[in-house]
Amino acid sequence: MQQRNSYLPIENHGIIGNMHTAALVAMDGTIDFLCFPKFDSPSIFASILDCENGGHFSIVPEMRNMKTKQLYIPGTAILITRFFSNDGIVEITDYMPVNEKSCYSFNAVVRKVKVVRGEINFKVYCRPRFHYAQAQHEASKRNGSVIFKAKNDGNTTMRLSSNCKLSTRNHDGYSSFKLKESEKVLFVLEAAKEGEEQNFQDIESYGSENYFETIKYWRNWLNQSVYTGRWQEIIHRSAITLKLLTSMEYGSVVAAATFGLPEELGGDRNWDYRYTWIRDAAFTMFAFLKLGFTHEASDFLGWIIRQDKNRDLHLLYRIDGTSEMTEEILEHMEGYKGSSPVRIGNEANHQLQLDIYGELLDTIYIYNKMHKPITYELWEIIEKEIAHVEKKWREPDHGIWEIRNEKHEFLHSRLMCWVAIDRAIKIAEDRSFPYDADKWQKLRNDIYKDIYYNFWNEEIEAWAQYKDGDKVSDSMDASVLLMPLVHFITPEEPRWISTMAAVDRELRLDVLVYRYKNNGKIDGLDGEEGTFTMCSFWYIECLAKMGRLDEAVENFEKMIGYGNHLGLFAEQISKNGEHLGNFPQAFTHLGLISTALELNKQIGRVTGKGKDIY
Fold first, then answer.
1. Quick one: pLDDT band at residue 612, thresholds 50, 70, 90?
2. 408 beta partners
3. How far apart are CA 542 and CA 522, in angstroms?
4. Phi and psi of 487, rounded to 5°?
C-alpha cells in the first residue's frame, strides 16, 4: 500500500485530537485526514477526499488475509487499531498528547506500533500534502528525523521522529522494519520550527510519559460528568467527541472535524464544517451543562462576550473569532468517491439566520439556572440581542438548514425568536435585571400568536415549514420537532399530536428522519440527501415527552445501532445505511446526549425521580 487507491467508508474511521486540531484514523491504520496546526488550518493529510493525491500517514503490517478492529481505551480519546491474521496480531495506538498549559508545544501525533503475536514486517509511508495538497514541499534527514518543509504555505515545517530508521523517498518519509512478539516502535509527527532540534531526548520515554499523561487527562475530565443513567458508555463517548471538537485555546466549538465530505455520493452538497456556528456551539454547551461540564460552557460564554462586545452577532466564526471565510472550490481534489466539488470556507457566513438568538439565549438561561449567575456585562449583550430580535423577527431568512437560493419566513427561525424573548424574560425575572417588561412580554405574545395561527396549514393538519406573508407552505420540516422540546407547546396539544402524525407521514422511515423533502428544490440544489440523524433524535425525544416511553426507548436503541463501530456518527445516513456528511458531527452527538437525558428523566418520572428545570 504505497498510496491510497480506494476510499474506505466514512464511518470506518476513529477520531483523535488535542482540542487544537483532530485527525481521522481509518480501520486500515491510515491517518487520512488532518488539518494542522488548528481545526480550520489547511490540511496536511486529506486522502479521504483524494485517495491518490490528498496525503496520508500509513503504517502497513505485511500480513496475509488481515482483519481489523478499532477501539478506544475506555474513558479516553486514545485509539487502538488491531490487525488479526494467521501470521500474527498487531496493535497501532494513536493519540495526540494533551497539555492544558501549552497551546502548541504538544501539537503532535503519536503512533505506537506493537506486535502482540508473530514476527511481522512493516512499511511506513508519511506523505504530507501541504495546504490542501496545493503546496510543494521538501523532505530532508536531520538527527535521525525527517523534516518536511512546505513551500508557499507559510513555510510550514513538520518533523517525523522514530526509534527506528527513517529515510526519504520523493520528498516523503519512509521506513521498513521487522518486529518480534512484544517489540514496539514509536513515531511522532509534530510541528517544528526552522533549526529547532528535537524537543525530547528519548523517544520511548517521551511516548510512555505522554501516553499516561493523556490517559490521566481524559479520565480526570470525564470524572466531572454527573450522568448516571442508562447508556453511560455511548453518552460518555459522545461527550468526549464533543470535547475533541472544542478549542482549548479559544473556547469555541467546530461543527465537525472535516470539510468536503458529501451529503450525497457523487453530488455537490459538500460543505466545510470546521467553523463555529453559534447554533451548533450553543446546543453543544447545552449538552455539556446538562452533563456537568461547566468549564467548557464558561469558556464559550467568555468567547461570546469577546465576539459580541463591539459588533453584531455573526452566524459563524473561525475558531479564533474572526469571521472571514471565503468559500472556495479545490478543483484539484477528486472528492470522496468522486463527490465534487470539494469546498473550503463557507458562504453561509453572509446569511441571515434568525434562530441563532434563541439557541444562544436558551443555553445562557441553562447556564444561569444550573451553574452560576451570569454577569451584568453578559446581560447587556443579551439586551442588545433582544433589540435585534425585536427589529428583525418578521424578516424572511435562510433558516436553520441554510437554504441558499431564497429566503422565507421559516417556522424554526420564528420559534427561536420566541425562545430568545422567553428565556431573556426568565433570566431578567430570576436576577431582577432591568428590562422593559411590558414591551418584552407583548413581543413574546405577538410572536407566539404568529406561530400558532399563521404557520398552521389546515390541509396538512400541521405547522408548516415556512410562510411567505399570508401564504403558508404545504411542506414539512423536521425542525418542527423542537416546538415541544423548547416548551413552546405541550405534547398533549391536539395541534401537536396532528403535527407529529404529519412528520410520521411525510419525513419518517422507521427511526430515520429526513429534515425536509426537496421536492420543489427549496434548497436550490440538485440531487437528494440522506436522513438527518439529529432529527431522528429529536423525534425520539418528542416521543418520550408525549408519554410514548417504551416506543422512544426502543427507537433510541435502534438509532444507536446506526453509529459506527466506535459509537461515532456523521451528519446523515444514506439509503443503504452508510454515513454521509462531515464526520464526526457535533450536531448528531449533542442530539444523542439530549435525547438520552430526556429518556432518563421520563424513566425517572415513572419511578418518582424525574426533574425538569424549566
1. very low
2. 397
3. 26
4. 65, 35
The band of 528, judged by pLDDT with boundaries at 50, 70 and 90, is: confident
- The alpha helices in 432-564, defined as continuous H runs, are 437-454, 482-485, 494-506, 533-545, 549-560
**Tally of CB atoms within 10 A around 196:** 12
Beta strands in 364-403 (DSSP E): none
Q: What is the pLDDT of residues 364-414, one digit of tens each?
A: 999 999 899 999 999 999 999 999 999 999 999 999 998 887 899 999 999
- Residue 80 β-bridge partners: 71, 93
Domains of the chain, residue spans: 13-201, 232-606
Query: How many CB atoms sit inside 10 A of residue 545's CB?
Result: 20
Query: pTM of the predicted model, to two decimals?
Result: 0.94
φ, ψ of residue 230 in degrees (nearest 5): -65, 170
For the chain, the C-alpha Rg in angstroms (whole number) is 25
Percent of the chain with pLDDT over 90: 81
Contacts of 210 (CB under 8 A, 6+ apart): 97, 106, 110
How far apart CA 197 and CA 200 sit, in angstroms, is 9
Amino acid code (one letter) for 438: D
Find the farthest-apart pair of alpha carbons in the chain and give their distance in angstroms, rounded.
Answer: 78
327 falls in which pLDDT band (50, 70, 90)?
very high
* 175 Cα distance to chain centroid: 34
* CATH fold for the domain made of 232-606: Glycosyltransferase (1.50.10)
CA distances from 395 to 353, 413, 414, 417, 560 (A): 10, 10, 9, 11, 38
Q: Closest by alpha carbon to 285, among 323, 317, 322, 242?
A: 242
Question: pLDDT of 244-294, one tens digit each?
Answer: 999 999 999 999 999 999 998 888 889 999 999 999 999 999 999 999 999
Cell triple for residue 135? 503546496
CATH 1.10.3720.10 describes domain 13-201: no
With H, G, I as helix, E, B as strand and everything else as coil, classify residue 160: strand
Q: How far apart are CA 402 and CA 399, in angstroms?
A: 5
